[in-house]
Write a structure and sequence with these properties.
Elements lengths: L9 E3 L3 E3 L24 E5 L14 E5 L8 E7 L9 E7 L7 E11 L6 E8 L9 E7 L2 E7 L7 E6 L12 E9 L7 E12 L1
Length: 208
């Protein structure tokens, strides 16, 4: 699902101008022209990664994490990659390694800045595996609020961009959607269909 608002200033007798920036940058360097659509619109764009740095589109930080940073046989990192899912802008590349003799899991976290997502019904993002290095076809997505966490297992990931729309009702442990704190992608040694590899992700959003 792709919702794009193009920049369209309107002048009324020189008194004021209305404009709305595109949710995806249409090319070139520099920072993204992305803006967050506030609750009440059709989409809350959390992160499109077009700026090539943090924070995300709603002001939240993000990063990589792992169970045991001292275990050199497991590891996770994130980096920006071009182009994004639609051939423009940037996306995020998540490299993982859970091939360890020790319990191994970790991944990527992103702050949601206590967003109120009650107007929305689905979590949406684009995803694909990296065919050049391999990838797991199964991983875990978590949503968190101030009181807890709820997981969802995503399967059948391919090496082609696919849009994923997960009903918020699938995160059954979340009962209060008014103050969401975090989005997490988890690679687990017990679940990964390939223990090392890379996944691309883009345009993390909440949609109606």
């Amino acid at each position: 699902m792709r919702v794009e608002i193009k920049l369209a200033p309107v002048l009324l007798l020189g008194l004021f101008m209305l404009g709305c920036a595109s949710m995806k940058r249409s090319g070139g360097g520099g920072e993204a022209d992305a803006v967050t659509v506030k609750p009440g619109g059709d989409i809350l764009l959390v992160a499109d990664f077009d700026a090539g740095r943090g924070p995300n589109n709603i002001g939240g930080s993000f990063g990589s994490w792992d169970k045991d940073p001292n275990d050199e046989t497991q590891g996770f990192r994130h980096e920006f990659s071009v182009p994004g899912y639609d051939g423009t802008g940037q996306c995020l590349r998540l490299t993982y390694d859970v091939e360890s003799v020790n319990p191994a899991y970790g991944g990527f976290w992103m702050k949601l800045e206590n967003s109120d997502v009650r107007p929305y019904s689905k979590l949406s993002f684009w995803i694909k595996g990296d065919a050049s290095v391999g990838y797991t076809t199964r991983l875990k997505v978590e949503l968190k609020n101030n009181t807890g966490m709820s997981p969802f297992y995503l399967t059948n990931i391919t090496d082609e961009w696919d849009v994923i729309e997960i009903p918020l009702s699938s995160f059954s442990r979340i009962t209060d959607w008014s103050r969401m704190t975090e989005f997490v992608v988890v690679f687990e040694d017990s679940q990964a269909t390939k223990k090392t590899g890379a996944i691309y992700i883009d345009d993390i959003s909440f949609v109606k």
